[in-house]
Write a structure and sequence with these properties.
It is a single chain. With 119 residues, the chain is an alpha+beta fold. It contains 2 helices and 6 strands, in the order βαβββββα. Strands 1, 2, 3, 4, 5 and 6 form a 6-stranded antiparallel sheet that branches. The two termini are 28 Å apart. Pfam families: YugN.
Length: 119
């Protein structure tokens, strides 16, 4: 599921500032990166069913390399996916309404923060 209504796609930002912003909004990068791309995740675990979902925000470097705080990255469209062990994450699924609503709430807050942060 894509979240295009927040107009995050295409935003450019310094990597060091993005790291601070994503940490503030509780998105985790962990090992999901290489020198050109990174993915920030928000993990959801539905206790009643044991299902795991990820709100993902991919970015890619347009100047410099990931891990260089002065690099500039471009943000892509946030997506929600469901994890299937051991196969991976699928994005063309039906998602629980409460998780979709929480994703929308978090993305609204993130988009608001990105609007006031200069490059």
């Amino acid at each position: 599921m894509k979240f295009e209504q927040f107009h995050i796609e295409g935003k450019e930002i310094r990597f060091g500032l993005l790291e601070t912003i994503m940490d503030h909004h509780h998105f985790i990068r962990e090992g999901a990166w290489d020198y050109e791309r990174a993915t920030y995740d928000m993990k959801y675990e539905k206790q009643s069913t044991g299902e795991t979902f990820y709100l993902r925000l991919p970015v890619y470097a347009i100047e410099g390399q990931i891990e260089d705080r002065h690099a500039v990255v471009k943000m892509l469209t946030p997506i929600l996916g469901k994890h299937y062990y051991p196969h991976g994450v699928e994005y063309d699924e039906e998602f629980p309404e409460e998780i979709v609503r929480d994703c929308e709430r978090r993305l609204t807050a993130l988009a608001d923060t990105l609007e006031v942060k200069p490059l």
